[in-house]
TrEMBL record:
GO CC annotations on file: nucleus
Cofactor: Mn(2+); Ni(2+)
General function of this protein: Metal-dependent phosphatase that shows phosphatase activity against several substrates, including fructose-1-phosphate and fructose-6-phosphate. Its preference for fructose-1-phosphate, a strong glycating agent that causes DNA damage rather than a canonical yeast metabolite, suggests a damage-control function in hexose phosphate metabolism. Has also been shown to have O-methyltransferase activity that methylates glutamate residues of target proteins to form gamma-glutamyl methyl ester residues. Possibly methylates PCNA, suggesting it is involved in the DNA damage response.
Lineage start: Eukaryota, Metazoa, Chordata, Craniata, Vertebrata
Single biological process term from Gene Ontology: DNA damage response
Name of the molecule in the record: Sugar phosphate phosphatase
SUPFAM superfamilies, per database record: AF1104-like
Keyword set includes Lipid metabolism: no
Organism of this sequence: Neolamprologus brichardi (Fairy cichlid)
EC numbers, comma separated: 2.1.1.-, 3.1.3.-
Record's comment describing the protein's domains: Subfamily III proteins have a conserved RTxK motif about 40-50 residues from the C-terminus; the threonine may be replaced by serine or cysteine.
Ranges for domain Damage-control phosphatase ARMT1-like metal-binding: 25-425
InterPro entries per the UniProt record, alphabetical: ARMT-1-like_metal-bd_sf, ARMT1, ARMT1-like_metal-bd
Length: 449
């Protein structure tokens, strides 16, 4: 693999370039999200009073004051400040700030518009968490919970359709040929891929549910998948199959690094259920976020809530799925992790050095699926790569296991395209990298390099 010495590593995307997507995000979308967070806290004022009395009202006022200050810092391009909340990850964040300052030099401080977009966007969500954490008793309030639950409840038709499809497969799964299994695998991978369109951080918290099942329109969506490595992902899974104690021949473990709660999470759970029930994998490890993050990302509470909701749904196949998912968790065939590294600003090529325990965990997987746009930005370092640079090059040595990105494009970075493909897309549709209309299923296998 090329080292950084022999390979030109482009700069990180930032809001320095007026009019760029990063600039518009920092100028418009991030302040809008902060305004919605303030509104949400204020709307829950009575709830805080009922639960905590006058202390709850004081906490609400102080949290809003800190968030208003944060919004002002952002909009006026003030220096990024060190965190003060004393959480286990506080030192790591403050060290990262020092690292950014060293990279940027002494001429100017690390600030909202002049420093890497990936860093300042992650930092904003960590500061939102800090504003609540410093104000007990409302420290545990998830400011994004309403949007996440709404995304699930308003996608009920699509959820029913998806669970009905899954149960149909499972009814005769033992009779399916390898080719039929691959067809279902491919469909559910695409279902999980297009489920990623439902991202509340991109719509700045606007309602963004899925009214119909993406499985109904997969054929018409195929032209919008710019890179489709499904067959390579399938081959990696099949080549990892070993005889197990149960007598079944299966791959040992697939890890899914989750993105959004709501409908997207259901598409991930359905895919995970299929992998286990078809014997393609023995166990699934899910990786979520330890704090509310990027408006709609999955936390442990969201994960458990979604399964409980499915169990309680008045629909035969949805509730059957929910019961089965709870059983998988109870029996240890599924498990959920939330390492703090996922809510830090690091590129994933830093993981082996900065979170070696997590890197070692991922090395135990036969396949790691990375969901969504933020994971893609971290996989590729959110850098201004040429579109024809290979996915492997952009990963810069990150490869704990065979890995695949399932991502609808919502940020102006995309690698691994054919020569001329990016230029053609730009001439046809100037917003192709940021509209969520296009997608990739992009695979890298460090074991075969």
């Amino acid at each position: 693999m090329a080292t950084d010495q022999t390979m030109h590593v482009p700069p990180s995307l930032s809001a320095r370039v007026v009019g760029s997507f990063a600039y518009l995000t920092v100028r418009d979308r991030l302040p809008t999200i902060l305004t919605k967070v303030v509104d949400t806290i204020h709307r829950n004022k009575n709830k805080f009073f009922e639960e905590y009395g006058e202390v709850g009202i004081q906490a609400e006022k102080q949290a809003i004051s800190l968030l208003s200050k944060l919004r002002n810092e952002l909009q006026t391009d003030k220096p990024v400040l060190a965190l003060t909340d004393g959480l286990p990850d506080t030192d790591s964040w403050n060290q990262y700030l020092e690292r950014q300052q060293r990279l940027q030099g002494d001429q100017e401080p690390v600030s909202w518009f002049k420093s890497p977009w990936l860093y300042v966007e992650c930092y904003m969500y960590r500061r939102i968490h800090e504003a609540l954490l410093l104000n007990p008793p409302i420290s545990d309030f998830d400011v994004f919970n309403e949007g996440k639950t709404q995304s699930f409840t308003e996608s009920s038709q699509a959820v029913m359709s998806l669970c009905t499809y899954l149960e149909g497969i499972k009814n005769n799964i033992d009779e399916l040929s390898k080719n039929s299994l691959f067809e279902h695998f491919s469909k559910l991978m695409q279902g999980s891929l297009w489920g990623n369109k439902c991202d509340l951080s991109i719509s700045a918290g606007q309602e963004n549910s899925q009214k119909t099942s993406p499985l109904d329109s997969l054929y018409s969506l195929l032209p919008f998948i710019l890179v489709d490595d499904t067959k390579r992902v399938w081959s990696a899974l099949i080549s990892a199959q070993r005889p197990r104690e149960s007598g079944k021949t299966t791959a040992d473990r697939v890890d899914i690094v989750l993105d959004n709660a709501g409908f997207e999470l259901v598409t991930d759970l359905v895919l995970a259920d299929f992998l286990v029930s078809s014997g393609l994998a023995r166990q699934i490890h899910f990786h979520g976020k330890s704090i509310p993050w990027f408006v709609s990302d999955v936390t442990a509470k969201d994960f458990q809530w979604t399964i409980q909701q499915a169990m309680a749904t008045n629909h035969k196949w949805v509730s059957k799925c929910g019961v089965q998912w709870q059983r998988y968790l109870k029996e240890g065939m599924w498990c959920y992790h939330d390492h703090p590294f996922w809510t830090q600003p690091h590129e994933f090529c830093d993981m082996a050095a900065d979170a070696p325990d997590l890197y070692t965990t991922l090395q135990g997987a036969d396949l790691v699926l990375f969901k969504g746009d933020l994971n893609y930005r971290k996989l590729t370092g959110d850098r201004d790569w040429e579109h024809t640079v290979s996915f492997e090059t952009a990963l810069r040595g990150f490869g704990p296991a065979p890995l695949c990105s399932l991502r609808t494009l919502k940020a102006n970075i995309q690698v691994g395209l054919q020569p001329g493909q990016g230029e053609k897309l730009t001439s046809q549709d100037p917003s192709w990298m940021t509209s969520g209309k296009y997608a990739v299923i992009q695979f890298h296998n460090p074991k075969s390099e």
